[in-house]
Amino acid sequence: LAAAAAAALGGHADALVADAAEAAALDPEGLSRSVIVARDETPGEAWRLDAELPEGCTWLVDALEPDPAVRRAVSRLLADVCLAPDRAAAERAVAADPRIRAVTEDGELRGEGWVALGRGEASGVELAGEAERAAARRDEAAAQLETLAGSLEGARSAAEDARVQAASAAAALREHDHSHRELARAVEHAERGEAERAKNAERAERRIAELEDKRGTLESRLEEVRDRLDEADDAGPVEDDAGDGRAEEAAALLEQVRAVEVEARLSLRSAEERRDHSAGRGDRLRRQAE
């Protein structure tokens, strides 16, 4: 609204502000043509012309926020000025009440029978408005810069965290690969051991089968000796040497049968223990590898 205010104020847009006593003491002979506004901070409502405005128009003084020192003076200078959204609205406002001056936001000012338009040198009001807008843009840029600085710092921190996490992940991956290779070697070793124990178990089973056959043979021989002893007893007295020989043979065969049976049981138990131990260790290693 700086252009509208400058156009409506005219020469007062570049006015000097002074106390009433200071203004009275000025020597007009030593001054170029100047407008001086007396400083007056007396509170009060803004004064406006008693008139009805067309739709879309408002009083210019209501749209401004002048310094308290010149508020009363600005209110009186702009009491008859309305702010129009465009040229047509300004023309309607002046036609409705010739006392009214109407100004558009781009600074086109008109009254009954006259219009002031175009651009001249920037007034103090316009320069002040431009300075305020520049300060607002500066503050906005500073706020954005501060926000961007915080975002940049956050991004740097996130990048550093990501690098640390990546390094940790790489170390964990290397450790995992090493552990996996160790487990793979252990599983391979266990599988070889299991294969070897399977061979041993197979040999033990063959040995047990051989011992079972041998025990069967010995038991058959023992049974034959017992049968001969029984037949000899039924036939009557025999020479002591012959009877003793058969008894000793039977006792020896019985002892061999018992020895073979014990050996078979021990071989079977040992084979079962090796098989169970191998199976348990293999399962543990496979679970670790998974």
From TrEMBL:
Pfam families: SMC_hinge. Residues 224-246, 265-290 are annotated as: Disordered. One of its GO terms (molecular function) is ATP binding. SUPFAM superfamilies: Smc hinge domain (SSF75553). Residues 3-92 form the SMC hinge domain. Residues 230-242 have a biased composition (Acidic residues). This is SMC hinge domain-containing protein. It comes from Corynebacterium otitidis ATCC 51513.
